[in-house]
Design a protein that fits this description.
This protein is α+β, with helices and mostly antiparallel strands. 18% of the residues lie in helices and 38% in strands.
Length: 193
Amino acid sequence: NLKKENLDLLSRLAKLDVLEQENDFLRTALDIEREIGRDVIYAHVFNVNLGPDGYNVLLNKGARDGVQKDDIVITGQKALVGVVEEVSNNFSRILFVFDPEFKITARVLGSVTAGIATGAYREGMYLDLIAKEDEIKEGDVLISTGDDVFPPALLVGSIVHVEVNESQMFKKVLVKPTIANQRLGSVVVLKKK
């Protein structure tokens, strides 16, 4: 009987732990909904892998849940994950920030230096259109500008390398996406306006 009671208690403890995590995430997501001013859908990333055709990132919500093409996917900390690319009835495929088809207008936090961040597979991202005279350095944080379909102040990444070539008009800037070292799980889908 003691073994059975112990298993029952462990099961209850596990359920309580899951509910606490879910409650914390929902509180965060509600704050995002109020702050950004868009409807949100709570979802979960259940697959992330790099295949021959690029990244395959799947979301456990689809058309029946209200997810639509071009909805924006972020973490609870407002780190950019990507954009909904394809929608099925029960799940969706995300165009991941690492994908070369992914683009966002981004700027350096606390600066006017801005460019177009583009996915670069395993390398992360590149920040294009940064002129030689633009101030940018390793460690700078990139955020969304709000000048495109993305709301402002989403965390995009941080600068890991800046290369200047005197014969080139623009600097070569390598970016590590904010989500690079995060384990993706619960996410927030921001409905497009």
